[in-house]
Amino acid sequence: MRKKKNKPYLVEGVVVVDIEKGGKGIGKKDGQVHFVEKAVPGDIVDILVFSKVKKIPQGRVERWVKRSDDRIDPVCIHFGTCGGCKWQNLSYEKQLFYKEKSVRDAFTRIGNLNIGTMHPILGCTSPFHYRNKVEFTFSTKRWIPTEMIESGEEFNWEGALGYHVARFFDKVVDVETCFLHWPVINEIRNEIRLFAKVHKLSYYDIRAHKGFLRNVVFRTSEGTRELMLLLIIGEEDPERVNKLFQHLSVKFPQVTSFLFVYNPKQNSSYSDLNPVNWDGPSEITEHLGPWKYRISATSFFQTNTFQARVLYDQVRRFIGKEKVGTIYDLYCGAGTIGIYISDLAEKLVGIEYVDSSIRDARKNCEINGVNHFSFYAGDIKKILTRELVVNEGTPDVVVTDPPRAGMDEAVIRQLLEILAPRIIYVSCNPATQARDLALLNEMYEVVAVRPIDMFPQTTHVENIAYLVKK
């Protein structure tokens, strides 16, 4: 028997006191916690509860009793729908406050850790137009908000080119303007939409797995002002690509590289595919301080160039001014951090899962004249062994920058065997970072923590933890 859904019900006078990790306001009424969409601390609202998640009522605002003094008007017409920006309705000063608080809460509540020094969060001087990589999806499944349907206003059900709606793998918001990337990208994306309509280029149907246009990815360089456009197609037809690219190359001379890739797979990943270079270089070049980085269509690079240098400078400060013997760079990607700190070590050892990233790392070392950086590609827990340490030497410092899921527990056990004097743990997820540090706490103490805002207008925060062997 199918379980009946509870009917929505109204709760009046909910006081919003905090923000949960997904960006919803945490409201309280008579001791009951509620999660409230688009609410910020200081709001007092009447909410309509439409569901419960882990026994916590989930609601949306029906009426504003009092608006928070920290509330601001979002600049984007898509705010609250596309799921990208969660905090455009919250002042940037308060965004930083709650991001710093989220790090502190993760370390004390999840990790039960003692923090030596909690340095204040470093905010971004450019809270908009900071993303150097952005990906848009073509979809036959356009998202139409409920309020638009209920309003009776006219709209069409044509496909969408934009961002995925949160929690819906097959629904895409048709984006006109986004404020997170270079403004010209809005013009290019909207021109692609118009060209596709005029020339009847089909959008990809993610359920039927058919359609010509799948995704378009833009990458930009602040240092060289290069702009790469990568088109991902679901049907192999270079002639149609040629017509589109010819049109865009004339209209937008700002685009310095045009590439496309045919993706016949049912999933949208393309890092294992080989892009075709239609025009311009196959890579763009970024500058961070004295270092140059070649970025290919599938390379990993920190998404916020402005804050990448701030982040890496903090890593340098934790290492110190005196050169050390050996640094291990775990989850090294394209060697970005390792190259940035390469003058602080006699020797560097980089380990990374993805072969293509290691190829990029070797290339970046070559163009920067870094010849004391050795690399290993594969499963980190199988590579980081006692044998490796015997061959490469015991590290004086370990720098680790794992994905959001954190480090594999086997890697942590190996770090506890190696016992490097110092560990610098860079993370984009303070919750998994705190979990990992709780395991390392057996032999290491957290001397200092420094949050850095890499992603303004979102709930995400980068964090560096500096550990010293007890």
Would you write up a description of this structure?
The chain is of the alpha/beta class and 470 residues long. 26% of the residues lie in helices and 31% in strands. The strands form 4 sheets. An 8-stranded mixed sheet has the order 6-21-22-20-19-16-17-18, sandwiched between helices. Helix 1 runs parallel beside helix 11 (430-440). The relative contact order is 0.11. The model has no long low-confidence stretch (mean pLDDT 92).
Helix content: 25-40%
Unreliable sequence segments: none
Q: Biggest β-sheet: count, sense, barrel?
A: 8 strands, mixed
| Order of adjacent strands in the largest pleated sheet | 6-21-22-20-19-16-17-18
- Our measurement of the CA-to-CA distance between the termini, rounded to an integer number of angstroms, reads 57 Å
Silhouette: globular
Mean pLDDT: 92
